[in-house]
Amino acid sequence: MNSKEYIKGTIKTIVLKLLSENKRMYGYEITQRVAELSSDEIKLTYGALYPILYKLEDEGLLVTESEIVENRARKYYSLTEKGNEVAKEKVSELQQFTEILKKILQPDPNGKLSLEIWGF
Amino acid sequence: MGILSQKQLQEIEAFLDRQGLKFPPLRAEIFDHMIGDIEYQLENGNTFEQAWNNISGELPQDHFKQIQNETMEAINKRFNVTRGLTYISVGLLILTSAFKLLHLPGAAMLLVASLFSIAVSFIVGTVSGIRINKGKKGSTLLLATVIAVLYFFVSWTFKLLYLPGASIMQISSVLFLLVLFPLAGLSFRSLKSSDDNLLTYLHSKHTPGIERFLLIFVVLETLLKVAAIYFGYHPNISGILLIMVICAGVMQYFAQNWHPSQQNNKIWFQILLFVALAAAMLPSLGSMIPYPVRVLLIASFYILAGVIVNIKDRDNSLLINSLVTGLVMLISGIWVMVKLNVAPESVLQLIFNLPILVIFGASLFATKSGSLSRTFMIISYSFYLFEYPYEMGLF
Prior knowledge:
A: 6 helices; B: 2 domains
């Protein structure tokens, strides 16, 4: 599935949702978790992930802390109180939106009937 | 220890260098992420070469540079009080220059208002930086640095306005900076990562803005000084602007060295930086230091800072760095000989004229934005303009 064109507007919500379920995560861990949960259908690129993480940090939704792991710096992200609230809000909005999409994309029952007339 | 060898890690670092990824926090994260990606592929049976080709081969040209631009844009997009105050300061500076050029009264007052606005935006930016980045350490060091920098500029304002206590303020502010800057450099040496440190984090984040601000000053001071030289009047306000740019540029130059010096962990480089800082800051004490010593200190700064540029700057080619620093060293060498009466006064005509002024300006823009070399040229160009005798004319 070509998920790239659908994913763009939802990365922020995905990141917030993952962080709301985990105390703290680092960049590589986020991409791995997304790949795992989507059975490798969604692969977050460097370009899709990092500008969003920095933006969320700048907006006060995330805080960071660095640790030295295997002799290199690793930056962990976690949600602030405000970030937690926004995460709930965004996840709820996206769920509502997917429900609406489902309704739109469901096959039209009337259309099916009209085809039956023609023997399909 | 990780599973990658030192040589393989260096290969990744060199790749990030070639990609132009400079913003330290982002660079450290991408470095860690790429290692994670490679190690994952190694665990799945690939060799390092295969893993490396798979990962780097998927990346479009200038991918990381683009991410860096998008990241900088994302974090600098929001309008805040600090940014509003910065715009007001720039507006007031432009107005000051216009008033001065049109010989309208009130230019000096506008300049003081502009400097006050810069100071307020500096304080507001620092406080909001501490508030937003609560998880980062080093707020005391950040506050101490901000106080030291502001105190230095306040002492200059006292001197320019002939207020009492200016001398003692100047001595203490220079000593404060001479102790604090090396201490900051030394404290970063003990940290493997400075991303958690507020001072280096905020400095890296605001470096493009600081450079833009200095360049606006450079344009205004050029306009004012060239007008003063052309019409032959005393360039008092452009002189103040030039001193501000030289001092702010010197501080920016040393702050830019915090990151590479901390990564390299070499004590001789810290000593070199300290000597260059002392050579740059001590002459600001004016007549408290004997004239020949002051002149020699200034010339030493341009030589030492030029050497540091050639050692540290990897953003520009060696040719560009050698040419621009060579030009500065040559001019400062001739200047110091005239000032110490080793060469006759008439020699100044060789270095202070329109063609050299244009070459200097072009050299400034030949260096890459955000590089150490660019900051060095901002300082050198401002110093050149400051020393340009207004009676000499352009030709």
